[in-house]
Amino acid sequence: MKYGYPFSGHSHSSVIDWSLEVGIPGLLLWLAFIWGLMRRGLRSWFRDKNPSGLLLLFVVSGFFGRSIVDSNMRDHMMEMFMMLLGILLVLTSRHWQKNNDVAGIGVADVPQRMDASGKVGSM
């Protein structure tokens, strides 16, 4: 039996697999994308005090850290990561925060009540 047979199909490191598939320019673009996401999460957390920014930072750094030691940038794992990224990017956008509070409940969604004098106030 020859060494390395049967061939497994991946190196158990997504960073190595990605580099072999798209080359150094593709790897640099991926790293820039990851860095930009982490930077956005940090900015959203520290500047805007948005907990979604901290969650974005944890999700991106966790996915990237795992991609160094595991082949997770394929199939459903990458799809779930991108879907979660899309949701978190919306939650960390300043436009979203301006129109909604951090929990995503707008002012119009808060139940209103009228007191005995006829003034409308929130519950």
Strand content: under 5%
Mean pLDDT figure: 80
Unreliable runs, pLDDT <50, ≥5 residues? 106-111
Cα shape: elongated
How many structural units, i.e. domains? 1
Helices and strands, in N-to-C order? HHHHEE
Distance between the termini: 74 Å
Which structural class best describes the helix and strand composition? mainly alpha
Total E-strand runs: 2
For the largest beta-sheet, the strand count, sense and barrel status come to: 2 strands, antiparallel
Proportion of helical residues: 55-70%
C-alpha Rg, in Å?
Answer: 22 Å
The number of helical elements comes to 4
Largest sheet: spatial strand order:
1-2
What does this protein structure show overall?
With 123 residues, the chain is mainly alpha-helical. The protein has one domain (14-122). The protein is 63% helix and 5% strand. It has helices spanning 14-48, 51-69, 75-91, 94-99, and strands spanning 112-114, 120-122. It has a two-stranded antiparallel ribbon. The chain starts with 13 loop residues before the first helix and ends with a strand.
